[in-house]
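Lecture 7 notes. Example A: sequence first, then its structure tokens.
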Amino acid sequence: MKFTEKVTQEWNKLKLMSGKDRVWYIASYYKFHIGVICIVLFLLYSAAGVLYHSTFTTALHVIYVNSFSDQAVDLSVVDEDFPAWLGLGKKDLVTAELSYIYYGEQATEYSIANLQKIVALISARELDVLICDTENMEHYGESGAFLDLSELLDEELVSRISDRFWTCTNPDGNEYVCAVDISGTDFVMRSGLTQEPPLLGIITNSQHVDNAVSLIRYIFDERETQ
């Protein structure tokens, strides 16, 4: 029997059945076919999603460390407002996330996992900026994890914010400007950051240094609240 004839025969058979019988018949005799179709559609949908997201590029990855507050940190200031200010496209992703890290007796499995995650992101060159407390800035700064802002930023910006520079000692024993204190800015107030002070450092092997510098300019081009 030809395929078209079989299809016609099955269609005619279904038309003669009641609704209940029709559902039972299809479920009994075509469940395998339906399952295969569902799997194929799922795979096509997944492949389309992967293909679509492959067209996105990371413009900046920021992690806030140890901002403790009764209210959640507003990540949209970085991952929505900043990209709009910089004029990035919809497929240029700026990602912000939270992390909590303790040392010594306060260290927990969760804290250790966060510490390892940041180390892994730095090793993979997938992290650009840390905004953290003094303890974590010292921890990462003394390992040479940050670029020297006094050498990276242009003279105009340095002249405006040099009084906010924060220094660390690198593994060679030399002091360098590993961070800038961003306390008292609109950015900190709107984000709800509570570190005292919140310190911003640019990771030494960042692949998006220009955008990281633009984030500093964005923060200090805004009105300071104090």
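Example B, a different protein, same format:
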Amino acid sequence: MIMKKVLSILTVAALVLGSTGCKKRDNSIPNWPWHDPDDPDGEWVDVTADYGFMPEYVQVLQSPSRLQNKNAVAYIARVDMTKTDMNVWAINDPELDGSSDALRTPKECYEAVGKPCVIINGGYFYSDSGINYPASLAISNGTMLSPNINYASEDWVVMYYPTRGVFLQQASGFVAGWTYFQDADHHYLYTAPAANAWGATPLQVPDENFPTASQSVVAKNGVGGGPVLIKNGEIVCTYRQELFNGETSGILCDTRHPRTAIGITADKHLVMFVCEGRDMTPGVPGYTLDELAKIMLAQGCVEAMNLDGGGSTCMLLNGKETVKPSDGEERPVGCCIYITK
């Protein structure tokens, strides 16, 4: 079992999602106008044509001025997955020992992987003493680059073993679920999370039969993050069970921030979502995870998961920025998800 006292996952999250206070880069960030700014019930607007050539299987939507009764600047790329694949780039660290791979901004990743038409940031990560560590699963073309981190603690005395969210492209289609990694031969996928809770007695280490009957993690492509937002067409938003809440959490579940999420609809359309927050556009706060889950459900998602947010949130469409990054410039990240032309 992996057990490294480098940083707790909650401190990791604080490093990843929290704002770094970088100098604003306003001159290079597009200032997109809201559509129908006086209409709180406005519809999402198709802005595909604004971003140059897009394959016929990609549609780009810009949000109305308000979602969930809040001012909004948000974008969705809807991708027909009967005609293409989801692709994943991530730092390579299958044993969570640390990686010499460099973090990349989405723009750097865009250039490195062949200028895809859509790219968003992926799961969590952190750095310590010059070494980069993934904290979330990444699978690319059947190869596991990293598993989800498999422990959590607030004091390094009481240890928990949470099952964390994943979003997988399997042979049978896309699925959200929860995983636990013991080693390369014991990597479990569950249909429900272990019901851990901060302050409660830690539950047993997950195995092939706990918290549910499991299957091995097998996927063509996949990303971790969490929490799972939607499962089997219903909102679950399991941030408490996944131990993403708590005083030291950087996921900031119950307050409004920039967010990134991914989901799949019943008709096999991938929904890649980003939204601004932290008043990068004045009056736009972002969303809580519960609000994010409702937005993804309204988009028809039957499975969906939250990804890294805050300063990491970014979507590029043919290399062009959409939402303003809350650090003032794109943050180097440990994972990106992209769609090729």
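Note on Example B: Residues 1-16, 18-29, 32-39 have pLDDT under 50 and may be disordered. The longest strand covers residues 173-183.
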